[in-house]
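Before a colleague's protein record goes any further, I have to sign it off. Alongside the sequence sits a line of tokens, each denoting a local backbone shape. I want your independent view on whether this chain really folds as the tokens say. Where you disagree with what is written, explain briefly why. This is what I was given:
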Amino acid sequence: MATLYTQVSRNKAKSLFYLLFFALLIMALGWFASYYFGDPSILVIAVGVSIAMSLFSYFGGDKVALAASRAKPIQSKDNPYVWNLVENLAITAGLPIPKVYVIDDPAPNAFATGRSPQHASIAVTTGLVKKLENEELEGVIAHELAHVGNYDMRLMTIVVVMVGIVTLLADIFLRMAFWGGGDSREGGQLRLILMIVGFVLVLLSPIFAMLIQMAISRRREFLADATGALLTRYPEGLASALEKIDKDHRPMRTASNATAHLYIENPFNDRKGITARLSGLFNTHPPTAKRIKALRDLSV
């Protein structure tokens, strides 16, 4: 039986492995593009554009997500129950008290956002507060605080930059190759093999990048589950909360594809539909049943 500490360590190690694989993929693409066109500036351009595109989401993405979700900020006097839960857990975790928001929606869900613990916000729906018992709501809030403490928003911003670099490199290469770019030097069979492998890599790399992004996102959910359980010392609270959230099939009115990955559970009403029957490679969240099982297999 895995302990909370071994689960946390395992999930951190797997996230690092995915990031290293991502970096190797980018280096392979950059090397091939530079070799094929004889122009090392291609990689520099792709990196610069991707970073520029991500700066806005890094510094202003939390405000956009909260506004898009129609989340309303609250203070202690507005909702003492929710506010005190967040405050007590943040103090226990040694984190700054995040801004607290409530979303007027009957579907039970929650999310955290912000680039650092000093700029974090936690939003819960009215449906979540109404549906869950105290220990269950505490488990959900602890999960979201774990995302804050683990700097998951910062990590996913880095991942988004990497996805952008891979996609731009592939796009630049294909456009330049289509319009007749490339080094015309002859190099025999070895060069031909390199060209074939390179073209296959370029064509498939955006798919690889998306799969890695989804894998990292799912791994961070497992990590937040384990870290949250470590904070409350009661894994069953979050496990029971996930069961209740998963059984409620009402879609959120304010959720969108751009913000869906932030929520503790899929905010759309397709958990039992096509998405649930797929392999899960393109899902940002692990299957709920696996998360519940992992929590109940933990020993505190």
Q: What stands out?
A: Confidence is low (pLDDT under 50) at residues 271-279. DSSP finds ten helices and four strands in the chain. Residues 136 and 240 are 6 Å apart (CA to CA).
